[in-house]
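Ticket #4471: complex job returned nothing on first submit. Input attached below:
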Amino acid sequence: MMLLGFMAMPGPSSAQTLGSETRQSGSDPGDPASGSLTGPVSGYMDFHYNNREDEDARLDFHRFVLLFSHSFSDRIRFVSELELEHAVVSNETAGELELEQAYVDFLITRSFNVRAGMLLAPVGIINERHEPPVFHGVERPFVDTVIVPTTWFDSGVGVHGEFRHGFRYRAYLMSPLDSTGFSADQGIREGRQKGVQSNARSMAGTGRLEYVGHPGLVLGTSFWSGDTGFQDLRFDTSVTMVEFDGRYRYGEFETRGEYAHGYLDGMGELNASRQRTVGVSPNVARQVRGFYLESSYFVSPLPAPRELALFVRYENFDTQYRMPTGFQPLKEFDRDALVFGLTYFPDPDIAVKLDYTVLRSQSDVVKAPDSLNIGLGWWF
Amino acid sequence: MTQAILRRICVLILAVVATVLVPSSNWASTQEHHIVEIVAERFTFTPSEIRVSVGTTLELRVRSDDTMHGFRIVGGNVNLTVPKRRQGEAVVLFEAHEVGRFRFECSRLCGAGHNFMQGEIIVVEP
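Support reply: We reran it on our side without changes. The output follows.
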């Protein structure tokens, strides 16, 4: 065990720090190669091999993300996250360059702090906690893609803090969703305005209450509510989403689950209006719903590079769970998935992932493809 | 045979007494000494609130369950690296002289929710 101890000088506070040390096994924490140097730039990357049934296999540099931060003082901080998806941004490619976060935190007290700028909606497990080594499976869960549209970000302002006994909260006002982007298969996903001169005629409210007071246990509930119909003022549309999630880790075993339910008002009028103006109804549902349960176990609970975990996840998600009067659901959008595989950690910040995804829908006509996926993700 | 057993018992008793009486480290104190184990992970410290009485010496042992974090007492002189999962721990000795609140935080950018990683040592009257 390497010991780097030093006797610290008393700080300005009346309580003293007598001493401090980092006890690190395996490497010298003072060695730059051990990664102990801190800096204002961090990031994560996600490189995927996706082999879907009935399609050619694809290699995709899915995400290249850089985080920049700056402390103006102990109480005023800036954090940003700039993401390049699918490597190239052009008219011919699916690439996107997104400013997913860029906010200033005004840290006032432990229970009350103010945040403004480009924010992450505090909904679900993955949206705020999406670095590749922290979740199993090459791709993010389906529920956290088509029901909770991660990465869900937009401009806004809000407050956050922690009360006693491990309860903490976020409450933001954010730019609303745009219902003209809603669809039958992707739900509300394409309704995100992403801070691109977002229409703010009516701000959405979103929040999360979380319990983190017991080691290994996180329980959370989130909501989002806001009008979405500013593109067509002839009728009102809105979205309200509620979500519950939990994670529990005991020894080498971890389990997590999430349930998300979206209520979309005014979709009958929206579908009819698009039918009249464009000629095709988007067939948007009045309710979308999804849930998943996942368990994982470190079968090799040794320090990296000997860490290996196995996992299995069951998901059920339906973007046409309930339809407006006069519209019929398509069974192909009532889907479930079984995802299983392994995550190998050559370093706690590097995840080599392998999974097999069995995707099924209730449709007898449209087949949902299985896939074999391999991923390399890292954080620094 | 019996004498040999008695000798071994005496040696054992002496060893136990010596262990108790001899300070195990130069951090030992005559004050009340509390050890608190803290788990750091994106984006929480658990526990995030530690209450102690004035006069207590607090030994904080911070380990990570994922990436490398930092442990900094705001306004103080502690800013340590918390090693990655299964690679060690950071140890801080904190002496509570007076009533007050002392905020600690992650000092190494660890992801999207980095600024949520805060906690507090609350020193109260005995």
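Residues 301 and 307 of chain A are 6 Å apart (CA to CA). Closing as resolved unless it happens again.
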